[in-house]
């Protein structure tokens, strides 16, 4: 069955996920994986679905019919790359005073080492007792065969010291 990656966005309100799930279900689709959240008054997300090949076009048309409620774009998905199960996984957590450039500097290290980001979650929140704003990030990455997690950790620790953020790197 073909996999579709759906990107969705709409004004946040009740019933958005239900409307999307109804369309997927009505066309024999299976909701496999998703990441969705309310951000700045918008409900946004990514959903991976499988659908019988003969019903894929019907599903795309039904998703177009959600316009006004949700904007949905359907992209062809693929299976996990061959050999991906041999990649090691790392979890990176950081927290520190918010400032521009944190995601840029950390992602540059990850790209330099050829790491693939599986998930990244970030948020800003009030700092207890200091009155400032904290930036927090949680990142799950895959290290390709031949990659050295110790080298990645060392480079991330260097960046963390320059950014004045606390960093934890661990194997998953």
UniProtKB/TrEMBL annotation:
Gene3D superfamilies cross-referenced by the UniProt entry: 3.30.70.260
Origin superkingdom: Bacteria
Name the Pfam families for this protein.
ACT, ACT_6
Domain spans labelled ACT: 91-172
- The entry's protein name is Glycine cleavage system protein R
């Amino acid at each position: 069955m073909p996999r579709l990656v759906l990107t969705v966005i709409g004004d946040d309100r009740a019933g958005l996920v239900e409307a999307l799930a109804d369309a997927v279900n009505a066309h024999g689709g299976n909701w496999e994986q998703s990441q969705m959240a309310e951000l700045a008054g918008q409900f946004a997300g990514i959903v991976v679905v499988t659908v019988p090949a003969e019903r894929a076009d019907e599903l795309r048309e039904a998703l177009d019919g959600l316009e006004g409620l949700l904007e949905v774009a359907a992209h062809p998905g693929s299976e996990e790359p061959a050999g991906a199960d041999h990649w090691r996984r790392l979890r990176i957590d950081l927290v520190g005073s918010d400032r521009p450039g944190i995601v840029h500097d950390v992602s540059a290290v990850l790209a330099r080492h050829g790491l693939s980001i599986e998930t990244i979650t970030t948020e800003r929140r009030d700092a207890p007792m200091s009155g400032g704003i904290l930036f927090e990030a949680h990142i799950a990455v895959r290290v390709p065969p031949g990659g050295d997690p110790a080298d990645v950790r060392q480079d991330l620790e260097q960046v963390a010291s320059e950014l004045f953020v606390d960093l934890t790197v661990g194997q998953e």
